Amino acid sequence: MKYIRLLFLTALLLLPALSPAVEIEGVALPDTIQLQGKTLQLNGAGIRTKFFFDIYVGGLYLEQHETSAKAIIADTGNKRITMNFLYAEVDKEKLTDGWDEGFDKNQSDERMQKLKDQLASFNALFTTAHRGDSIVFDLFSDGSTHISFNGTEKGEIKGLDFQQALLAVWLGKKPADKGLKKSMLGH
């Protein structure tokens, strides 16, 4: 009986360690994830809002905690960005218009011209998102970006230049949501 009681107490003590690092609007974000054999830690997470509506919970995972957006964009290590949708429905057109706008706001005309084909391929991967859906962007050190929708890989975009431009949508000088940028940077 003492043994069972000891196991029970030990299990209770371990429960906080097993809980998610952050829970935002019912979306649990774990402390760490595994990506290509590396452990990434949750750098920060927050809510993307637009016109007072909560659109999604965004999370940023890095190999090492970093508070500088410039350093994160320049870093070639593995990263993950998660989007867990809270809003009832975000249609494909709004998603792709948002990507176009986010890239355009944070890139020069010359760089946008170079990214045009990659961005078109990227936009073709999206479908309408609903409450409870998730999109995951795995940015690998080889320069490839893998996009998954609800756990199913949708495609890959190659190029470190594309990765940096994608990160700038959230972390650039003109981010889609300043509050979410601040949260992703762990501020």
CATH class: Alpha Beta
Indicate the percent of residues in helices.
25-40%
Our count of domains comes out at 1
Low-pLDDT segments, ≥5 res:
2-19
The fraction of residues in strands falls at 25-35%
Rough outline: globular
Mean of residue pLDDT? 91
Distance between the termini: 48 Å
Question: Do you know the CATH architecture?
Answer: 3-Layer(bba) Sandwich
Number of strands: 11
- Please give the radius of gyration in angstroms: 18 Å
- How large is the count of helical segments? 6
What is the CATH T-level topology?
A: Chalcone isomerase
The SSE order reads: HEEEEEHEEHHEEEEHH
Overall SS class: alpha+beta
Physical arrangement of strands within the biggest beta sheet: 3-4-5-6-9-10-11
Query: What summary fits the major beta sheet?
Result: 7 strands, antiparallel
Q: Which keywords apply here?
A:
11 strands, 187 residues, Chalcone isomerase, alpha+beta, 6 helices, single chain, disordered N terminus, two-stranded antiparallel ribbon
Topology overview:
Blueprint: H1 2-18, E1 22-24, E2 27-29, E3 32-35, E4 38-50, E5 53-62, H2 69-74, E6 79-85, E7 89-90, H3 92-106, H4 109-123, E8 129-130, E9 134-139, E10 144-149, E11 152-158, H5 160-171, H6 178-184
Antiparallel strand pairs: 1-2, 3-4, 4-5, 5-6, 6-9, 7-8, 9-10, 10-11
